[in-house]
Amino acid sequence: MLIKIQKKEINLHTLFVEAGIIGGIASFFSDKALEAFGAILLVFVGVLTKRYIVPLLKSAQARQTAEHVLTIADDVTDYFAEKFPTAHWSVWLDRAIDKIIEVTGVSRGPAERAAMAAISRKKEKIVSQQKIQAQT
Fold first, then answer.
1. SS3 30
2. Which of 77, 86, 88, 90 could join 118 via S-S bond, C-beta 3.0 to 4.6 A?
3. Which is higher by pLDDT, 4 or 122?
């Protein structure tokens, strides 16, 4: 594209190249600028991963561990309930908790909660069975 300025023809392409506009843009997108942008992008992805993905994975792992402990607590309490059918659950609860700790490696608090939850589910099941038998 040609522009006539006071009887002088100036090519716009040569004007931009000589003025350094194209050269400035080209130097901006040089290899070093792209490397810096890549490094900034990598840091940003790392921060997002640490903030959102890692906690999600940790919670999934904790959930799987909790399910594992509850399953073992159910099995252990079933075993002790069958071994001591006439005894109240409070008699064999400490042994059941110790066995859960031995098998799973969790501390005493989670093992107690898992054992109590298993006993609670069993009591609910027994009560509902007794209600059904009473109705028939």
1. coil
2. 77
3. 122
Other Cβ atoms less than 10 A from the Cβ of 81: the count is 17
pLDDT tens digits, 96-110: 999 999 998 889 999
Answer yes or no: are the C-beta atoms of 76 and 93 closer than 8 Å: no
H-state helical runs in 1-136: 12-19, 21-28, 31-48, 54-83, 89-104, 108-135
Q: Considering the entire predicted model, what is its pTM?
A: 0.54
For residue 117, the enclosing domain spans 2-135
Tell me the C-alpha distance between 115 and 108, whole Å: 10
The string of pLDDT tens digits covering residues 13-51 is 555 555 555 566 666 666 677 778 888 999 999 999 999
1-16 in b/e burial notation, b at 16+ Cβ within 10 A? eeeeeeeeeeeeeeee
Q: Looking at the predicted structure, is the pLDDT value of residue 2 above 50?
A: no
Q: Are 116 and 89 in contact (CB under 8 A)?
A: no
Could you give the number of structural domains in the chain? 1
